[in-house]
Structures are given as C-alpha cells and as structure tokens.
Design a protein that fits this description.
Radius of gyration: 21 Å
CATH topology of the largest domain: TIM Barrel
Strand content: 15-25%
Number of domains: 2
Largest sheet: 10 strands, mixed
Number of helices: 11
Bound molecules: iron/sulfur cluster
CATH architecture of the largest domain: Alpha-Beta Barrel
Strand order of the largest sheet: 3-4-5-6-9-10-11-12-13-14
CATH class of the largest domain: Alpha Beta
Shape: elongated
Length: about 350
C-alpha cells in the first residue's frame, strides 16, 4: 500500500473489497466503511475531520493512519467551442503531470481518463507513444482524475461525470490490476455509481487482458484501435500488432460480443493516402462483414510532431459511406478539443476520447 512522504497510507489506494476489513480491524463497525466511501468519493472531501456523521475518535484514528490528499490540478484548458476541457494533474510525490479530458455533450459529461504515464506500445501516430512508458498509474491516480473533474464541474454548477472512457494517456489493459480496481470504485453505488453501460475501455489489442475483462461480467464497452486493414500496415503504425495480429483481434472481439452482448467498436484512424483508400474499404469489408460491430472513423490529428495528414472532411464522409454500402456500421467521429491538444492522439496521448452512443 502506497505511503506518502507524510508516512500516511493513501486511502484511495485501498481496494474497495478491503475497506470494510480495514475499518473493522480498527475496532469499528463495518457500516462505517460505507459512510467513509460516500464522503471520499461522492462528497470528495480531503479531510476525515469533515466527516461529521462519524465519531470524533474514529476521524482522529483515520487521520493518523490515512491521507485523503487530492492530486493538484495544475492546468485547465477549455476548447473555444466549450465542449472539451483538458486537465493536468500533478501526480503524488512526483513532478509528473497526467492529463485527462472532459467532453461535454448535451446531458452527457464524459471523462476521458489516463491509466499510465506515457505508454510502452509506441503507436506512431500517438503523442503518448512517443513518451515511452514512464510508469503505471496507481489506483488513486486513476480515480483522482475523476475526483478532480467532478470538483471542477461542481464549481461551475454543473452535473457530475456521467460516462467514462479509458482513452487518455496509456494502455489501460497493460495496467490491468490498477485499472480493474479503479473500475470497482467507479462502478460501486456508494462511490461513483457509474454503470458498465456508461464505461468504455479502449485498447490497442492486448488480447490476454481482453480475455480477463470478458470473463469478469462487468458489461463494459470495448473499443479496439484497429487503424489499418492489413497486418503489414498495422504493424508499421502499431508495433503491438506483431504480437496480437488482426485476425486474433477480430476473433476475440467476436467472443467478447458473444459473451457480453455488447457490440465492439473498432476505431479506425484515417490517414491520408494510407488508411483511406478503396483497398481499405474492400479489406475492412472482408474482415468485418457480417459481424455486428461499429467502426468509428476518426481523422488522424496532426500531433505536435507527427507528419501525418488528416484527409479532407468530404473524404471522411465518402469513406464512411463506402463502408455503409458494404453493410458495415460506420460512424464519423467529431474530433473535439483540437485547439487544446485534447483531441484524439494529442493528449500527449492516445487516439481516442470517444463519445459512446
Ligand atoms: S494509441 Fe494508445 S496504445 Fe498506442 S501508443 Fe498511444 S496510448 Fe499507447
């Protein structure tokens, strides 16, 4: 369990299944655990002293053992269209900043969370990939982003986050344990109470972790970054393809659908002259025809350093229409937050932040 420089245990790193035991071991009744979790994750207090429905002596004991310190919000940047906000949070006892994005769409408030600092998978179109993997985020660093975004929304008099996408910095399925235990907190009714249908994890295709997820009956959405129509091409832009090639990805996607009943989304980044050709349409139709899935067509976002060109708007529609004509369900994704480098592939991050329909 992580201890900070103050010698205190970071409470938000406790697995949800262990909170009641921890409280009981302190000589308290188990029901106090529920009260504490509501204070921490729903009211988002940063001091046990504020938990005024609990005995003073318990608050004192908790303060001596645990810390509720929040990650410091060091930057916010809002898009001109006011439908995206990018946040920078300073990690605990670190000089590193992790980025998250809030997407605002009518009644939906979608938090795009990061799961790693950097990423080791090295997709060439992705700014995060260029950082390499610095380290996995701890459970409380994943949850801390959500707490910070809800604090921000509350200050604006807005409603809390309604939807979650794990599409910020890093590959969540490569940080499976912390991602999984953060999910428990996100979904728990005494904490954030966000159901599986409003959560999506995006992956470059880490098959063993997809398999684990599939067997956990969480009913969360799965989005696979496909981005190419042949192994040769995909391996060039996504080296993870050498380990988990397209045929295996599609096979696991089909099993995921069979097991969960949730249609898998394939994210497909359009790069001019590379992935937007008629050959691509034919190949995608061969690969995905007859499988009830969705294809999200996304223009590549020219990062600060990438040399990729995004196809003209009309070309995106033409590409999606051609997929439709082949019987595939394709949607065009509006790439919000471009001017704040908070759009797909720009977070110093990954290619997604997708709204879920
Ligand atoms: S696209 Fe995702 S998996 Fe690929 S390098 Fe970026 S963060 Fe990692």
């Amino acid at each position: 369990m992580s201890e900070g420089n103050d010698g205190l245990i970071r409470f938000k790193n406790l697995k949800i299944s262990s909170v009641a035991d921890v409280i009981e071991k302190m000589g308290e009744k188990k029901f106090r655990a529920t009260q504490i979790m509501k204070w921490v994750y729903q009211k988002r207090v940063d001091s046990f002293e504020l938990m005024n429905n609990m005995p003073k002596v318990l608050r004192q004991k908790l303060s001596e053992k645990f810390s509720l310190k929040k990650m410091e919000l060091v930057s916010t940047m809002e898009s001109r269209s006011r439908d995206a906000v990018k946040f920078g949070f300073l990690l605990h006892e670190s000089s590193h900043i992790v980025e998250s994005v809030l997407l605002i769409d009518r009644n939906r408030r979608t938090a795009c969370l990061s799961s790693q600092l950097g990423c080791g998978l090295g997709c060439v179109f992705c700014e995060t990939g260029k950082m390499g993997l610095i380290r996995n985020l701890a459970q409380d660093e994943i949850i801390g982003q959500l707490i910070g975004i809800n604090d921000f929304l509350e200050k604006r008099g807005d409603k809390s986050v309604t939807n979650i996408v794990f599409m910020g910095m890093g590959e969540a399925l490569s940080n499976f344990e912390n991602f999984r235990s953060a999910l428990d907190i996100i979904m728990n009714e005494d904490c954030f109470n966000i159901g599986g249908r409003r959560i999506t994890v995006s992956t470059a295709g880490v098959i063993p972790s997809i398999e684990r997820l599939m067997n956990e009956d969480l009913n969360i959405g799965l989005a696979i970054s496909l981005n190419a129509f042949s192994d040769k091409q995909r391996s060039q832009i996504m080296p993870v393809n050498n380990k988990y090639p397209i045929a295996r990805l599609i096979e696991i996607a089909k099993r995921y659908f069979d097991k969960t009943g949730r249609r898998v989304t394939f994210e497909y980044v359009l790069i001019e002259g590379e992935t937007d050709t008629d050959e691509a349409v034919n190949a995608l139709s061969n690969l995905l025809g007859g499988f009830p899935c969705k294809i999200n067509v996304i223009p590549v976002n020219p990062g600060k350093s990438s040399g990729f060109k995004s196809p003209a708007e009309g070309r995106l529609e033409t590409f999606a229409n051609k997929l439709h004509q082949r019987g595939l369900s394709a949607t065009l994704r509006k790439s919000r937050g471009k001017d704040i480098y908070g759009a797909c592939g720009q977070l110093s991050s990954r290619e997604s932040c997708v709204r879920q329909d």
